[in-house]
């Protein structure tokens, strides 16, 4: 029998659910009345009682993974047509939902900007407004099932309010967004650099407006409905192809599939996203660019943009942490040499990067910092820089926790 971590389609979910919980429990869950209202009144949004939600989450946490698997099984039983909106491999999807639920309870209304973006991003999946109700019904039924006797009317009310508030924010943002939900683009070429990175160039079929430092989500027909984020490594210029840096991870995920793409392949791009841009930073203030691995692509775009628009970046420092034998990018040395007053340091370990970030000359007063790389690198760099006195508001990086 499949384990709850690797069941991959609706039928397998259903078999797993029946095996795990018994047919009667499953039927009860599917029939459960959640009292789910048809729509939330946006003028009277309530976010649910924080204390009640936190207690409920703490109770559910030990079985959270099971709960999420149960939820998707329940959802696809209620509305089998929803299955086609999701990728074949549901494991990453379940992890995302779990992270989203945690953030929703822990962060509450302050999560609104993230939810707005999530709502806009869901347009590219073709989600219909009414499907949010089915998802909500299924979620409440799943929470109720796992909470057991602790599922009181008060707890249900808190979860309902929180879910409805989140969905209202997502739907409102989606309704106001008049940009295309996605763009088609044709692969021009890809060049393998080093052992396992490809520099991929694609041409969108219609203008794709973005800012240097932003990223795009990409989907390939070779792996339908799997969207992943990649920085756009060049600065925006009319009619210029977009460049992405993709490292093989060996799990037959999107990066591996993109490494096999052929000239002429059509892919889809989600709308450009991301806060790591030069917007709001003065041209003359000191800047620190910190890149880890293929996070270099974000810095490449920012450096090219600085070069084109504002002349020399003065003064600026670039720290790149990469694997031995890298940087992989054949443009790297020429580009960094061509930016006047840019001082560049290459390191090959987290420890050496930490030592550089601790060095006082790396953070002069008035500094703006731009970070891109593995999540662990972002976390440790933010901790080191803020404890060295760099204001949090001057450290720019993207969090992809709830990206769609
Ligand atoms: N491909 C893209 O367009 C972009 C990728 N990213 C993310 O950047 C990462 C890049 O992956 P790889 O190239 O495989 O990177 P990698 O695994 O080669 O790591 C790059 C460097 O990050 C540093 N690092 C790792 N963990 C650290 C920690 N805990 N503290 C401090 N430094 C640490 C290491 O020094 C390492 O050399 C991925 O997580 C990817 O999601 C971010 C932005 C854009």
Structure report:
This protein folds into three domains: 10-176, Globin-like; 183-269, Translation factors (Elongation Factor Tu (Ef-tu), domain 3); 287-396, Nucleotide-binding domain of ferredoxin-NADP reductase (FNR) module (Rossmann fold). The longest helix is centred in the middle third of the chain and has 24 residues, at 153-176. With 404 residues, the protein is of the alpha/beta class. The strands form two sheets. The chain has a six-stranded antiparallel β-sheet. Strands 9-8-7-10-11 form a five-stranded parallel β-sheet, with helices on both faces. The chain has 13 helices and eleven strands. α12 runs parallel beside α13. The structure holds 1,4-dihydronicotinamide adenine dinucleotide (NAI). 1,4-dihydronicotinamide adenine dinucleotide binds next to β4, β5, α10, α12 and α13. 1,4-dihydronicotinamide adenine dinucleotide is lined by residues 230-231, 245, 247, 292-295, 297-298, 321-323, 349-350, 353, 372-374, 376-377, 380.
Integer-rounded radius of gyration: 23 Å
In CATH, the topology of the largest domain is named Globin-like
How would you state the average pLDDT, rounded? 87
The CATH architecture of the largest domain would be Orthogonal Bundle
Number of strands: 11
How many domains, in number, for the residues?
3
Hetero ligands:
1,4-dihydronicotinamide adenine dinucleotide
Strand content: 15-25%
What series of H and E elements makes up the topology? HHHHHHHHEEEEEHEEHEHEHEHE
Task: Tell the overall outline.
Answer: globular
Provide the structure class. alpha/beta
* End-to-end separation: 31 Å
- Major beta-sheet overview: 6 strands, antiparallel
**Going across the major beta sheet, what is the strand order?**
4-3-6-1-2-5
